[in-house]
Amino acid sequence: MKYLDTNVFILALTGNKKAKQILLDVASQEIDGATSCLTWDEFIWILRKQFKRSNLLEESKKFLNFPNLRILDITSNTLQKAHSLVELYELKPRDVIHAAAAIEHNITDFISDNDNFDIITEFKRVQLS
């Protein structure tokens, strides 16, 4: 399974070919893809600055109904894991929550353009660009 960071979804909307292909591969089940519910929050937060409400709601529906994408819950266990990651790595809270969700589900490939994730040894970051 591969974890898709928020920037995969944002970059796909802006025309990034690799991000679009990753999403197509998830939709067609060539990639077993997962992300966390935190991704929806970040995705909508970013898009609300650029989209009218009706378009924003449409993008939200597309995300929530994306074929074959597993949306992982953030639980108190996830937050405990995030806390342990904060003790090991100097990362932003949202980044360690994403990382904790991936680690909690034994995901070893983390697709992101955010090189902050490179310091985490529990998975390998797969770069988009």
Q: What is this structure's SSE topology?
A:
Elements (H helix, E strand, L loop, with lengths): L1 E3 L1 H8 L3 H11 L5 E4 H11 L5 H12 L4 E4 L3 H13 L4 H12 L4 E3 L12 E3 L3
Parallel strand pairs: 1-2, 1-4, 2-3, 4-5
Helix pairs in contact: 1-2, 1-3, 3-4, 5-6
Describe the structure.
This protein is an alpha/beta fold. The chain has a domain at 2-72 and 108-126. It has six helices and five strands. It is globular, with a radius of gyration of 14 Å. The mean pLDDT is 96.
Q: What brief labels describe this structure?
A:
single chain, 13% strand, 129 residues, 5-stranded parallel sheet, alpha/beta
Short account of what is shown:
The chain has 129 residues and is α/β, with parallel strands linked by helices. It has a domain at 2-72 and 108-126.
Q: Going across the major beta sheet, what is the strand order?
A: 3-2-1-4-5
Provide the residue-averaged pLDDT: 96
Our count of helices gives 6
The low-confidence parts are none
The amount of beta strand, in percent, is 5-15%
Supply the helix-strand structural class: alpha/beta
Instruction: Report how far the terminal alpha carbons are from each other.
Output: 20 Å
Write down the overall geometry: globular
